Amino acid sequence: MREVTYLEAIREAMSQEMRKDDNVFIMGEDIGIYGGAFGLTNGMIEEFGPERVRNTPISEAAISGCAVGAAMTGMRPILEIQFSDFIMIAMDNIVNQAAKTRYMYGGKAQVPIVIRLPGGSGAGFAAQHSQSLEAWMTHVPGLKVVQPSNAYDAKGLMKAAIKDNNPVLFYEHKLLYNTKGEVPEEDYEIPLGQADIKKEGSDITIVATAIMVNKALEAAVELEKEGISVEVIDPRTLVPLDTATILESVKKTSRVLVVYEAVKRSGYGAEIVSMIAESDVFDYLDAPIRRLGGLATPIPYNPVLEKAAVPQVDDIVQECKKLMNK
Amino acid sequence: MSISIKETSHSPEQLKTMLYDMMVIRSFEETVEKLFQQGRIHGTMHLCIGQEATAVGACVPLTNEDKITSTHRGHGHSLAKGTKVKGMMAELLGKETGYCKGKGGSMHIADLDVGNLGANGIVAAGLPLATGAALTSKMKNLGYVVVSFFGDGATNEGAFHEAINLASVWDLPVVFFCENNLYGMSGSIKEMTNIANIADRGAAYGIPSETIDGNNVLEVAEATERAVARAREGKGPTLIEAHTYRWRGHSRSDARKYRTRVEEKEWRQMRDPIASFKEQLVAENILMEEEYEALDKKVQAEMDEAVKFAENSKEPSLDTLMNDIFA
Asked: What region holds the Transketolase-like pyrimidine-binding domain (chain A) (predicted)?
């Protein structure tokens, strides 16, 4: 099968949906001729024109509200926030407006909007351009939160996000943009709320999100050499969360490690751990649940420090060994 | 530049409708205020008594397809746009027959069927939403215009500036309608901004603007007509600043220490938008005293009926608590 990058897969999903549905359009800063800060929208303005690939002022408070207002009146906007960190300036429109509109209006309005959020560290962009704040969003009822870890998932999840009638926050990891994977050209959708078992195993369940899925898979290869069989589960969407797939795996392996790049403290991994601990599957556990996350520090600039601030493959290997008392 | 009835192009029937619509708003506010004092409505509310002319006048040029965004002080806007008294009363009483099935309350009344995109509990939040609704109109060639109501307090929020700039650069069909009632909660506009007229801020974004008497319903209607016509022609947004005054405090907890009783009395006695308009209509023989009394009775009957409807409506079932939320 043909291979495309994560970035191209997202672009393809958006373009295919825009060809099918006039109501779908994209807006954001520098997404026109420039092609977006990461080049994701390259070529789109040429195909769809400036009306549907709307280059906006640097004005997150306005463009996020504009997207919500357009969605309330029948459009299906995709909003690119140039770096996920800039969501702070759009927060009122996302948390106080988009998330609540349907409910507080008694179900008489809907906000079908996708907000694309390039996030994560590792690119040397330092503290204000490298965060992973997806857990904030998962705390707000009314928002769906998606975090694809590979190109195939990114395309299928983007399509589901565009077709969803509720606000969806779509976190893209910057370091994954140029990773390649097999992606069919045809239309396919991955329903929101369906986890994926990226690798089967019998000793430990690793629940990892975004780029940590890839790191967990690398760690699994190392661990295999030492006779430890790891199962890697990617929830793919944090809200809604596919609890059944995770719990089934825990039942089988009896040991759990949760890995995420965001700051460990109050990160979404804590929610996954609680979910397991509160379930009937708790009785199956042979060891305390372990959690690996980012240190409680702003992301530093220096590449060595930057790397040390978030979990790496070797950290995952070490944690798994501890879980196996090795 | 006060406009008198002699100069207007509106028909006697239209003028009487404007008066009636203002009377409905005043009566609605007085009714819910009483219910609140009696403990039959809970929470809080922000009354627009004294500001009826801005809501009614600004909605005069609007069709059912045109839209509004409103504020925490939004009962008047909703009524002027065609949202019905009964459903609003039921919403304030938290009943299942309310516009939001009892889940929104005073600050979130919305009625999309008549183009009312909703009140808002966040100051200035309606302006960016209005640009989005206007973008839909423009992209789908739907021809409708959006009037975004907000207060003087909103004009110091970033959202005000960013939304007007966006609407300006994209020539969106929006009318930014500022009800300058002199106070954002307790903050006097004189203490909170350093410019004489909020309308001056239009120049910063390259759009026309004007300051008008917001207690003269005809002046409001005609200024909004010009702005709406401009928006419909694809020429982009306008900023209107209408001077008005809220007779009541900000909300129920307000002891009004930040303004004088003399000032309040002056606005109530000299610049009541309803009394002054009624006097003009009577003076011009457009309205008879008996007609006015009949209108007054009609309004009262409508309120009585709405209160009865709301009180007889069911509380929302507990089963609905988690409805209409999908994540």
From this structure: 4-179
Closest CA to A289 of A245, A239, A249: A249
Q: Are residues A287 and A200 in the same domain?
A: yes
d(CA A76, CA A67): 8
β partners of residue A25: A77
- Kindly list the strands in the beta sheet with A290-294, ordered across the sheet, starting from the edge strand earlier in the chain: A196-199, A230-234, A204-208, A256-263, A290-294
Say whether B324 and A141 touch across the interface (CB within 8 A). Answer: no
| Cα dist from A2 to A19, A183, A185, B213, whole Å | 22, 6, 8, 67
Q: Which amino acid is at A10?
A: I
CATH code for the domain in which residue B41 is found: 3.40.50.970
The answer to whether residue A182 is catalytic is: no
| A241 within a domain of the structure (yes/no) | yes
Q: Say whether B159 sits in a helix, a strand or coil.
A: helix
Q: Which of B128, B199, B138 is nearest to B165 (CA)?
A: B128
Residues A142, A102 contacting (CB under 8 angstroms): yes
Angle at A4 between CA A42 and CA A77, to 5 degrees: 45
Q: Does A212 touch chain B (CB under 8 A)?
A: no
Q: Which residue of B has its CA nearest to A110?
A: B324
Contact, A207 vs A233, CB < 8 A?
yes
Assembly ipTM: 0.95
Contacts of A25 in chain B (CB under 8 A): 139
User: Does residue B3 carry a pLDDT above 80?
Assistant: no
- Longest CA pairwise span in chain B (Å): 59
From the list A60, A261, A306, A319, the catalytic residue is: A60
Domain enclosing residue A211, as ranges: 196-323
Domain that holds residue B156: 5-309
Asked whether the beta carbons of residue B326 and residue A142 sit closer than 8 angstroms, the reply is yes
Q: How far is B14 from chain A (nearest CA, A)?
A: 30
What does the DSSP 8-state code read for residue B316? P
In angstroms, the CA A109 to CA B153 distance is 27
* A189 assigned to some structural domain: no
Q: Is the pLDDT of residue B253 over 90?
A: no
The pLDDT tens digits for A197-254 are 999 999 999 999 999 999 999 999 999 999 999 999 999 999 999 999 999 999 999 9
Let me know if A186 is a catalytic residue.
no
Do residue A101 and residue B118 have CB atoms under 8 angstroms apart?
Answer: yes
Query: Average model confidence (pLDDT) for chain A?
Result: 98
Q: What pLDDT was estimated at residue B1? A: 46
CB contact under 8 A, A69 and B108: no
The answer on pLDDT for B236 being more than 90 is: yes
Q: How many angstroms separate the CA atoms of B305 and B2, rounded?
A: 37
> What is the least distance, in Å, from the CA of B326 to any CA of chain A?
6
C-alpha to C-alpha distances, B76 to B60, B63, B108, B307, nearest whole angstrom: 13, 17, 13, 17
Residue A223 domain-assigned (yes or no): yes
Give the tokens for residue B196: 């004489």
Residue A286 lies in a domain: yes
Identify which of B67, B100, B129 has the shortest CB distance to residue A104: B100
Minimum Cα–Cα distance from A143: chain B residue: B327
Closest chain B CA to residue A102:
B324
Residues A20 and A117 in one domain: yes
Contacts of A66 in chain B (CB under 8 A): 128-129, 131-132, 135, 163, 166
The angle formed by the CA atoms of residues B106, B112 and B116, to the nearest 5 degrees, is 55
- CB of A10 within 8 A of CB of A155? yes
pLDDT value at residue B212: 98
